[in-house]
Amino acid sequence: MIVVLKDNPDKKQLDNLVSWLKSMGLDIHFSKGKSRTIMGLVGDTASVDSDLINALDIVEMVKRVQEPYKNVNRKFHPEDTVVEITDDIKIGGGSFQVIAGPCSVESKEQVCLVAQEVKKSGAGLYRGGAFKPRTSPYAFQGMRDEGIKLMLEAKEKSGLPIVTEVMDISHLPLFENVDIIQVGARNMQNFELLKELGRMDKPILLKRGLSSTLQELLMSAEYIMAGGNERIILCERGIRTFETATRNTLDLASIPLLKTMTHLPIIVDPSHATGIAHLVKPMAMAATAAGADGLMIEVHNNPAAALCDGAQSLTPEAFADVMEAVSKIRPVAYRG
Ligand code: PEP
Ligand code: MN
Fold first, then answer.
1. If you average pLDDT over every residue of the chain, what do you get?
2. Closest ligand 1 atom to the C-alpha of 129?
3. Among 70, 120, 263, 300, which one is most buried in terms of CB atoms within 10 A?
4. What is 83-333's CATH number, 3.20.20.70, 3.40.50.300, 3.40.50.1970, 3.30.360.10?
5. CB of 92 closer than 8 Å to CB of 233
């Protein structure tokens, strides 16, 4: 971190700043120019609040030269992380997986039928929400505990590992046999939840927040990893922009960019990113071409009757078509 001081800084304030920084274990290198003094802070600056330093009277500007995230940083871990879900199902480092299934668990018949269908088309993992984060308190909130039980039944019947979203720490005991715990966009910065997940021995699918920067996404992953859990998969699911024609705006550039910033695998959710079923195929192809490590796609046996997100859900037939298109892109996908 570099701190540029204003001309003729007040000596007392400067002494206070220097002793505060030293108390955090940092070494300070002064570089005195004709009119400006620059301080180079050497050491672990991850916990230093640069905004606080910037707000001081004697400071002109602060610039970070070291990212505030360490564990998830590619610089400290050049190899791709491969998250092992089962002996056969891995995500990252060249292993590509498609997670498919309904937005919400609605009934035993629906959840078991869709699992068979997506498996037939080559999905490696099955998704389905039991706890649903809905904008309206009057909308379907999910089948909750019962929904988790039905997902576990679908897992047993289909043999597919399952992914489902947690919304509250107190529900975590229900997730014991869930293969990947999803943190939804709205909970990306639920720091207490992230810390608890960091203490667990379970893969975590961390979705990007609606208005979060890539650095904020990585800082949330850092929370989980700082607790000791290194099995994290990031998910780009579109961000909120001024555009209202699509539900969100899919940030495709985030895929190759995140790959330079972190060693964690990155999957893309073209369903929530667009909100429109016919856009899922082209965006799934584009995300694959851009180097994603996998996809998450919503599939429903009868999208028109879905209790949640029917407009973006694919029929099993449309999903099979996407799988075929994606398999043709895979050999020519960007690898950095
Ligand atoms: C979901 O995947 O079911 C979901 C709610 O997605 P997001 O958190 O990205 O909105
Ligand atoms: Mn959904």
1. 96
2. 3
3. 300
4. 3.20.20.70
5. yes
